Amino acid sequence: MTAPMNPARRSLLRRLALGVSLAPLGAAAAEAGGAAPPLVGENDPAAKMLHYVEDARRASAATGGATCESCSLYSGASGADRGSCTLFPGKLVKASGWCSAYSSL
Ligand code: SF4
Asked: Which atom of ligand 1 is nearest to the CA of 74?
């Protein structure tokens, strides 16, 4: 018997799965010269769940200089102040940002 899944957790997992599948499309659109997607806001529900901040210096758990720019889920042009993240489809994150899903793998 399995315990029922928290609706907020289920929603986040769906968004994460969608993000992984759609992220390349957002990056391709940006590279093609289309309108830049909006930045993820810190008050976005998914951003809140992942403790996303636009400036990693404000996240005590962001250690060793970890930022979105060095995260394996980030895609952005070298030197750009923002890029795409597989966890936030259709939006951009700040290169200087950070969230609890940070991965250096
Ligand atoms: Fe995305 Fe990684 Fe930045 Fe988190 S730390 S918002 S997973 S790029």
From this structure: 8
Q: Where along the chain do its domains lie?
A: 45-94
pTM over 0.85, yes/no: no
Tell me the CA–centroid distance for residue 25 and ligand 1, in Å: 17
Q: What confidence tens digit (pLDDT) does each residue in 51-96 have?
A: 999 999 999 999 999 999 999 999 999 999 999 999 999 999 999 9
Ligand 1 environment, Cβ below 6 A: 52, 68, 71, 73-74, 85, 87, 93, 97-99, 101-102
Residue 104's contacts (CB-CB under 8 Å, 6 or more residues apart) are 66, 70, 71, 72
Q: How many CB atoms lie within 10 A of CB 79?
A: 7
